[in-house]
Automatic annotation (TrEMBL):
Protein export membrane protein SecD/SecF C-terminal domain span: 345-521
Cellular compartment(s): Cell membrane
Originating organism: Streptomyces asoensis
Name of encoding gene: secD
The name this protein goes by in its record: Protein translocase subunit SecD
GO biological process: intracellular protein transmembrane transport; protein targeting; protein transport by the Sec complex
Gene3D superfamilies: 3.30.1360.200, 3.30.70.3220, Multidrug efflux transporter AcrB transmembrane domain (1.20.1640.10)
Regions that span the bilayer: 363-383, 390-414, 420-441, 469-488, 494-513
Annotated spans, Disordered: 109-185, 535-565
Amino acid sequence: MGLTAGMFASGHTTPRLGIDLAGGTSITLEAKSDQGSAINKANMDTAVEIMNRRVNGLGVSEAEVQTQGSRNIIVNIPKGTNSEKAREQVGTTAKLYFRPVLAQEATGSAAASPSASPSGSSSASPSPSASASGTGEKATSSSSPSASATSQGRAVTDALKADSTPSASASAKASSSASPSASASSGAAVTADDAALQAKYAALDCSKESVRAKAGEGVKPEDTTVACGEIDKVWYKYLLGPAAVDGTEVDKAQAVYDTQTAAGWQVTMDFNKSGAKKFATITGQLAQNTQPQNEFGIVLDGNVVSSPFVQNSITGGQAQISGSFTQEEAQGLANMLSYGALPLSFQEQSVTTVTAALGGDQLHAGLLAGAIGLLLVVIYLVAYYRGLALIALASLLVSAALTYVLMALLGPAIGFALNLPAVCGAIVAIGITADSFIVYFERVRDEIREGRTLRPAVERAWPRARRTILVSDFVSFLAAAVLFIVTVGKVQGFAFTLGLTTVLDVVVVFFFTKPLMTLIARRKFFASGHKWSGLDPKSLGAQPPLRRTRRPGGPAAGPVETKEA
């Protein structure tokens, strides 16, 4: 009664259903050791923890992330969740670097048509600007660069080519001959000997997905590299210097909406001590240059997510990334930066989507199978045990009710989800529970066969039946425990349900079935051995009643009883 009251008080009156019953998406990821980290239990557990935080950061509190074997991770996302966004985040390594920009230009059709270049208005420029302060307050003066520059995060336009500044001339040269100019002050100059890199930059067409995927492949943080970034649905190519700041030096990142300047959604970052020092150094160097050499690229997993320019050194350990972010984009970027990089890279092996309709069909089929199994057990008990079947049926109902209440409570408590294998475990448990009743009934009938009446038969049969029931249930529970430990995924649902119902079987037999048998032994229908009670001494082949015998010439002998086995 207490468990039932607790179930209604908590508001969780139905078990939490798994993906295969409620619908959702299951993603299988395979670990790769291409980042120099070993595939071991520690790294896999760390990856599971990070993925859990990332998915929960999307508001998916019921998602499941768990290892499968030594190399795979299974991510189960329930229905009602943006599964595409979750797929993007769970397996993303989130390697973040801040690299100085050496050159940039549009690729594909945008590069061939000057009119395709976005206008220089601040409202159309999603390329973020960086701002910071050393006191925790948002900088609004020179340390917060304006977003109105015409070349911020953009291709070299005709207007920039016409500029007379040395940096602009160098950028024009990069656009026409794909030979990026050197920028000594950036700390990552490209010399004439870098012919291979220049050729790679010249041939880079970021409008092609296959090219973008391999743009920064195998590049180390200390290398000069090429990368791609998208602005207003136009892809740009970048030539970037060595990484100046590592993403692991970002302590905290969060998405905020700027209501004061109407800048929209921004991502704020807090650096640790070493990161703040490095960030102040690189922004101080970049502030001395002209565009595009005064920009730094924020490179996430090989893609330039933004390229803000710098006017002054940004100190204080805080920075903002602002621009034309949507709320979803800002929260997604902040989520990955906050929860860090995975120790391993992962490749998506399979994605299985189960619709709610299919899950409902499977649940209906499982419940139907359980009902058929229960009906067959009841028919057998009625045919063989007759009146005793009422006790067995009442015990089964009590066991089923306890199982249901516990499953409903364990959902919010430990995240237990009732999946199809768990339903199978509950169906198998019907036979295990019925087996305990049969053991006890047979012990009572054995006592009646030996000539005892029902009341002493019930009490004498209990110690012998109790030992057998405990041994049998212990073996079943041990098998379920081993299966739960050595398996992963949905099979654990079967093992957990089997172990739970086995424990409940002991509780029901000890605290319900045995007391109920004691009560019915006092009822005339059962005590008199009615032929429909299942305890008829005649039909059981009972021996004559026990009686005392007298030895010749001696005192009366004790009662003759059959020895226990």
